[in-house]
Every structure is written in C-alpha cells, then in structure tokens.
Amino acid sequence: MKWTLLLLCCLCFSAYSQDYLVMNTGDTLRGKVKIMSYDQLDRVQVGEKKNKTTLTARQVKTVFADGETYHPQQSNHSIRFMKLLKPGYLSLYAFKEENQNFYGGRYLIKKDGTKTEVPNLAFKKILTDFLGDCPELREKIKSGQYGRNDLDQIIDTYNSYIENNTVMRKETVVFAQKSAQKVEPLEKLKKTIQSQNDFDSKKDALDLIDDIIAKINGGQPVPNYLVDGLQKYLAGIEATKEDLEKVTTSLKE
Questions:
Q1: 21: closest CA among 83, 50, 63?
Q2: Staple partner for 146: which of 104, 124, 150, 240, CB 3.0–4.6 Å?
Q3: Do residues 154 and 141 lie in contact, with contact meaning Cβ atoms separated by under 8 Å?
C-alpha cells in the first residue's frame, strides 16, 4: 500500500513538474525545455533525445521550465525569454544582463504594453515617470521611502491602485447608464410639455422636471412628493399622459 501511494505521488509530481511550452498557435509541446540566448532573438528547444524541436521567441507564447514561467519580451531591438517573478497588471520579470548567465536584471511591464528596465542609477526619476499615475506611489518613490529593494511593495501598491480605480470606473459607468435610463423619459416629457400651448402649471411642471433630473444626476433619491407634484401639474393635459406614465414607471425601477 505504501509503495502504491509513493508511486502515485511520484507520477503526480512528474506530471506536474514536466516542462512544456505554448506556441502562439495555441499548441502545447511537452518535454525537456532548454532556453538558448542569441544576439537578438532567443530560441527554445523542447523534446527528448533525438526528438527535439527548436523554436524562436517569436513563435512561443509561454515557456514553463523547472517550475518557472517565461514569456518572450521585447527589449530594445531584441526579444528575450524573461522569467516571470510577480504577475499582475504591473508584472515583474527577470532577464539575463549582457555577458551574464543568470537572471539578475529586473524589468517592469504593464498590461498596456508599456515597460521599463529597473535601473540602478536614476531609479527615482525613471520609476516616478513610469508609475506617476499613482500619486501615493509617486510620492513614496520620490521621497526615498521606496527604493530598488522595495519592488514587491511598489508593485503591490500600484496594482492595488489600478484595481480600485478600475472598480470605481465600472461603478461610474453603471451609475451613468442607470441615470441616463431615468433621465431620458423626463427629457422626452419636457419636450412634449414645451410643445403645448401655455397652461397655468406649465412653468411649474418644467421646473419640477429640472429638479428631478438634477437629483438623478447627483445620485440623490427622488422624493415621492416631486413625482406627485408633477402628476398634479399635468393632470388634464392629455398630450403628456403617455410620457408621464413612462416617467413614473422609470422612477419606480
């Protein structure tokens, strides 16, 4: 029983740890992976013994080798397989610096495609420019509170800022859409009233509609007395009946 469990564990570990790569076509190739650096275009070899395939960094989307993930990234005029250290909207990658055999360089890449190498010199200037859309982070880097050794905190702060702003933008869009749905029938009713011959409560009705629209656009609830007042002002004005019903229905939703 113990040997069976041990064998199953070994098989599971083997399947989990097996190297593979995903091509731009979506095809997956499995086998021992070897990343090879060239002058301007990295290559990757995958397979076992004589059954090996060599691909360029232009042909590959992702490489998984020895438990690490690599993506091809353009740097200057070269395309290199960079090691993913920290994923997110702002991701941290490691790369091999010139004449080095280890991944000692650091690269920051945003999902919008903008990127920068993490410098040793001029760190404050380059990072405040690159991440300047986050005011809190900009000030912490500028003041020296965050330096090159604080990349984890810098990335977490920036990604949190982007996530919160994205949520706020989505909420703003939803609010604007809901407001527009309520304002549209009010604007239509307003035009209908304006097209009618003068009647005693015409100006009061138009002023009341403007008050209701202002409350909707300001995110405030519309009190029932305003709706009741509008219905009272337009009582007996047959031409506004249909539009008024649409307004009251919309405001109840």
A1: 63
A2: 150
A3: yes
